[in-house]
Design goal:
The protein folds into two domains: 141 residues, Medium-chain alcohol dehydrogenases, catalytic domain (Quinone Oxidoreductase, Chain A, domain 1), CATH 3.90.180.10; 123 residues, NAD(P)-binding Rossmann-like Domain (Rossmann fold, 3-Layer(aba) Sandwich), CATH 3.40.50. 22% of the residues lie in helices and 28% in strands. The protein is built from six helices and 15 strands. It binds NADP nicotinamide-adenine-dinucleotide phosphate. The site of NADP nicotinamide-adenine-dinucleotide phosphate has 23 residues, from helix 1 and helix 2.
């Protein structure tokens, strides 16, 4: 099969190569998915799990891409819940080969059925931001209708999904970002926008929840706008402060079939949009990821037309 691999941890995106590899085998409870669309997350080549297995052994050449949509072609021994020929989408384990390939071997429980009226590109684009936003807002952030939530990076890949889901759940949403992101954040449904370069974060009225994707100084400053008893949730790694009266949670997104199905349902009902910047073929993906004119946002790799 054709696959994009990385072998050199220091090379970054420039180290990506399109090669021929054997198709992967299906282990117990796995399925083989013929990938139609996949994608990487911007900084995944810096994650240790891209380079080693769970026992910290080198696993290169490794295939990046944890988000995918495609069709099940093989069931591993004992696999239940999915069938051959079924359209699926889901999130690959961090330590396994990913979706920038024609075939991927993945645990069935990491996948959900992809309804016929959602195309593979949209399906793939919903996975990582959809699950991350869902878990940050509702599982860890316990967001309720009527609450106020501050969403950092509101026009970005994860942030735009968090804005939509939070608004849809009846929250009052304050999005943040750069000046140029205002229109996009409001279009995704933010009630207000804070331009982090020109407005003062500390001026906003208190919120019940901060959903952070930026970390650093912005994350630290936003602790001050959370009401007593409120929550700070981040996907940008642990923060150093432990503010009194505020619950702080950093988490890594997990695959979840039921949540993926909820996300798909909202998409089909027009309540949620995917945030795709461009779509490239597998043959063109290495050049696109290394292009100096690369479009910001989510690039979907259309592995199979
Ligand atoms: N822990 C997890 O499970 C998990 C899951 C998913 C993602 N993540 C992480 O979450 C982060 C965001 O991912 P993403 O895919 O949503 O990226 P993204 O699309 O680049 O979103 C970040 C957004 O914030 C903006 N931004 C960045 N720095 C800013 C600043 N100083 N002031 C104002 N706006 C700023 C970006 O604008 P520009 O594009 O102009 O910089 C962009 O719109 C990444 O680090 C990713 O690895 C973690």
């Amino acid at each position: 099969m054709k696959a994009i691999v990385v072998t050199d941890q220091d090379a970054g995106l420039a180290g990506m190569k399109l090669v021929e590899l054997p198709e992967p085998p299906a282990a117990i409870n796995d399925v083989i998915v013929q990938v139609y669309a996949g994608s990487i997350t911007g900084d995944e080549l810096s994650w240790p799990s891209t380079w080693t297995d769970r026992a910290d052994r080198d696993r290169t050449p490794s295939i990046p891409g944890h988000e995918m949509a495609g069709v099940v072609t093989v069931l591993g021994y004992g696999t239940t819940g999915l069938s051959v020929g079924q359209r699926v989408f889901g999130l690959q384990d961090w330590y396994r080969n990913g979706s920038l390939a024609e075939y991927v071997s993945i645990e069935a429980r990491n996948l959900a059925p992809l309804p016929d009226d959602i195309d593979f590109n949209d399906g793939s684009a919903l996975v990582m931001p959809g699950l991350t936003a869902w878990q940050g807002l509702f599982l860890h952030g316990r967001l309720q209708s009527g609450q106020r939530v501050l969403v950092h990076g509101a026009a970005g890949i994860v942030g735009s999904m968090a804005v939509q889901l939070a608004r849809e759940a009846g929250a009052y949403v304050i999005g943040t970002g750069r000046a140029a992101h205002r229109e996009a954040a409001l279009r995704f449904g933010a009630n207000e926008f804070v331009d982090l370069d020109n407005d003062t974060l500390e001026d906003i009225d208190q919120v019940d929840l901060v959903f952070d994707v930026l970390g650093g100084d912005i994350a630290m400053r936003s602790l001050g706008v959370i009401r007593a008893g409120g929550t700070f949730v981040t996907v940008a790694g642990p923060i150093e402060a432990q503010p009194a009266g505020v619950l702080t949670i950093d988490f890594v997104v997990e695959a979840d079939r039921a949540q993926l199905s909820e996300i798909a349902r909202r998409f089909r009902e027009g309540r949620l949009r995917a945030n795709i910047s461009n779509i490239v073929t597998l043959d063109d993906a290495v050049a696109e990821y290394n292009s100096t004119n690369r479009v910001k946002g989510k690039t979907i790799v259309r592995v199979r037309p």
